[in-house]
Automatic annotation (TrEMBL):
One of its GO terms (biological process) is phosphoenolpyruvate-dependent sugar phosphotransferase system. The lineage of its organism: Bacteria, Pseudomonadati, Pseudomonadota, Gammaproteobacteria, Enterobacterales. InterPro entries: PEP-util_enz_mobile_dom, PEP-utilizing_PTS_enzyme, Phosphohistidine_dom_sf, PTS_EIN, PtsI_HPr-bd_sf. This is Phosphoenolpyruvate--protein phosphotransferase. SUPFAM superfamilies: Enzyme I of the PEP:sugar phosphotransferase system HPr-binding (sub)domain, Phosphohistidine domain. Coiled coil: none annotated.
């Protein structure tokens, strides 16, 4: 089933008045987020651990937190507005970069900034917890890494993301979890089909909405074969590799190229 995920508005945080407690709140929220990320690092492995480590480095960066403090002290912004302004300034610089890699870090900056807001004012956090109770193809403008990691992947049949790229951390996590993704599809073109059954074939770039029996049958067979192939590949990947002269070697591949 196609399920539409609307982007959260941050307006309710932006209008929170400045307070004498803002500096203390900021330090507490930064420390809490760092603690949460460290806890997740202890529980995760693989690509998710690498990305969580990158997020931890971002919030511990002096420039990231320092600019929030500067916006509060020099421009007299409230903490909520300062976190959002800092996010927007960094994202604007990244979006203007000629590097695809840097442009795709926008989602990471937005991710940690939103987490800071949610930690500081948990009562304002949207109640959309992305609970997937049945096989779902998630449709969204974008999905942050923390949102992806919060999903029950057993019921995530695929994702359609309007704004993502091949080095996006969310896309890397999806690939590592064998979740098919279609990107660069306008959200408006898909949103009207929300709630309808669909089949997503990311390998061929196909989204079949309300598929008939023939299409559904074809993809059921294709999925069975894909599952079998994935199992065989996983078994092969776990085998040790040796050179011709019997020396143990490691083989790695870049998932993005």
């Amino acid at each position: 089933t196609l399920t539409l995920l609307q982007s959260d508005s941050l307006d309710s945080y932006r209008v929170i008045p400045a307070s004498a407690q803002d500096s203390t709140l900021l330090e507490h929220s930064l420390a809490t987020l760092a603690e949460q990320l460290n806890q997740q690092l202890r529980e995760r492995d693989g690509e998710s651990k690498t990305i969580l480590s990158a997020h931890l480095s971002l919030i511990q960066d002096d420039e990231f937190a320092g600019n929030i403090r500067h916006l509060m002290a020099e421009q007299h912004q409230g903490l909520g507005a300062a976190i959002i302004s800092n996010m927007e300034q960094i994202c604007a610089k990244l979006s203007a970069s000629a590097s695809d890699y840097l442009r795709e870090r926008v989602s990471d900056i937005r991710d940690i900034s939103e987490q800071l807001l949610h930690i500081t004012w948990p009562e304002l956090k949207p109640r959309n917890n992305l609970v997937l109770e049945k096989p779902t193809i998630l449709v969204a403008e974008d999905l942050t890494p923390s949102q992806f990691l919060s999903l029950d992947l057993k019921n995530l049949a695929g994702m359609i993301l309007e704004k993502t790229g091949r080095t996006s951390h969310t896309l890397i996590l999806a690939r590592a979890s064998a979740i098919p993704v279609l990107s660069d599809l306008p959200l408006d073109a898909i949103a009207r089909y929300a709630g309808q059954p669909a089949v997503l074939d990311a390998q061929c770039g196909v989204l079949a909405i309300n598929p008939n029996d023939a299409v559904s049958g074809y993809y059921q067979v294709a999925q069975t074969l894909a599952d079998k192939r994935q199992k065989q590949q996983a078994q092969a990947a776990a085998q040790l590799a040796y050179s011709r002269d019997k020396k143990r070697i490691d083989i790695a591949a870049n998932i993005g190229t």
